[in-house]
Design a protein that fits this description.
heterodimer, A: globular, B: about 300 residues, two-stranded antiparallel sheet
Amino acid sequence: MMSRENLTNLILAALLLAVPLGAYALGQNFYITLATRIAILALAATGLNLALGLGGLVSFGHAAFFGIGGYAAGILATHGFSGDPLVFGLPGTNQMLVVWLVAVVVAGLVGLAIGAISLRTSGVYFIMITLAFAQMVYYFAISWPAYGGEDGLSILVRNQFPGVNTMRPLNFLLICYLVLIAAIGLFALIRASRFGSALQAARQNEVRVATVGIAPFRIRLTAFAISAAVTGLAGALFADLNRFVSPSMLSWHMSGELIVLIILGGVGRLFGPLAGAMLYVIFEYALGGITERWQFFLGLILLGVVLFARGGLLGFLAGRAKHG
Amino acid sequence: MTLALALEQLLNGLQLGVMLFLMAAGLTLIFGVMGLINLAHGSLYMVGAFACAAVAAATGSFWIGLVASLACAAAAGAIVELLVIRRLYDRDHLDQVLATFALILIFSEGTRWLFGSFPLYLDIPPLLAGAVPLPGGLQYPVYRLAIIAAGALIAFGLYILISKTRLGMRIRAGESDREMIGALGVDIRTLYTVVFALGAALAGLAGAMVGALQSVQVGMGEPVLILAFVVIVIGGIGSIKGALFGALLVGVTDTMGRFLLPQLLALFVPPAQAGMIGGAAASMLIYVVMALILAVKPRGLFPAAHA
């Protein structure tokens, strides 16, 4: 017997694939792009959910990792296209797999550095410090002219995946979809592992975790770095989707949006980020069609969700989370 | 000549610091008393600037505009507190972040709705229009000096308010034990509204004063908000003294960094590159300073006793 949550999850995952396939059959490529956007944002938020949902680490700076992943794709593609060596004589590349690896490693390392300093603090300090570090990266991207500065960086041709024509929207959607499912699988594995138990225990009661001989700092730092790496991967895909990277990927609105996705879907829930991303992108699209003041109404809806509808979409569809 | 330039930059840094203090004082007070993290503080700064620009344009007087900015920001703060913020005191920080993030969307888009997307301009009042000579032959605008003076005055006024008046006593009592002062018969809900409106008024005033230096536009509060966060993290959240110290440190470090780093680098590398690297490094400087301070003192330079 499948639980209500698993059933809901299955339906959400199927919808994300079925709707764009239907749109493809009808020749509506726009909806494929919309679904790709949902998948990538859900991937970024799944990364954040590792830190925020499991670890209780309210990072307000995950845009930094998202943007770093994006710039990794943009910079590698630019060098791959021009043939100029990048660093130490190494060339750029247009291979997605290499780009992903670089995005994951760089975002993970930056996450390790930012986490090492930020995790010395907690609570509201942590929120503000992660925000401040993300702003630091943002201002660096703006004031460093080599890769476009404020104007951003165009990717002339979408990066290549072996054996797949990534310029076809449906193919690219499938790639993003599979990466998302893999990341959700990773989230489930981590949540069920000993490491994940320690991480969640550290959220619930730090003192007890320390008393049984587990150092919360190292657990959290590891989780934060993995979280950053997953969000960085999403950033690389996002850059390839838009074939454009700009400092706006690093802006604090992006960090806020990622948190919003998780809250809309349900904190700490396996499919929370996907549910949230679906809701958010559909809101954005539907409200944007009605009024150009859609952000105003998005704000009102968000306020309503925070004040009156705790638990998010999955809390509504699949009942409250069994454990907090 | 270079010395005069450095003095000018130092004064600019002080002016930025003073303005950051007005923002940070409200933020840190609201966190200290109510335990609330308010992202929408930058929106109140924007409300003050827009109120001042609109009223000054309608009446022709900057001073009436300044009064209007105080009144509008305080009123907006009080309304927001009554409708939304009040429900957030018992929630965790995550909910507070989200709800106030939603408020930013509402404020920004609402302001764009009312005033359009084009920036407004606010003229410096004639009384403060001129410039004074600095030693070394440069001229420095009186208006910026006036901002520094106003900030110093307000810092002193806040000190008197918090340490010498009955309201200040209640605020301090609220910081150390909110249940106890409630039990002693102080109307804590009204006190919270007053503190929030006070913080909002300070932010609005900062917005109005800076509005005459920059253009008044939607989103103007956000960079300042984040700098104010850096300030209170450095100073210690909940501490007004920390906010003052942190604000001056951030203001002067940021301004002097932008001025000095490119010049310093020019001694080692070609000027064009020095400008590029120096500029990028300067934009990160205050965050590096923040990281260094936190590495030594994770709770800031003047940690509040509680929280």
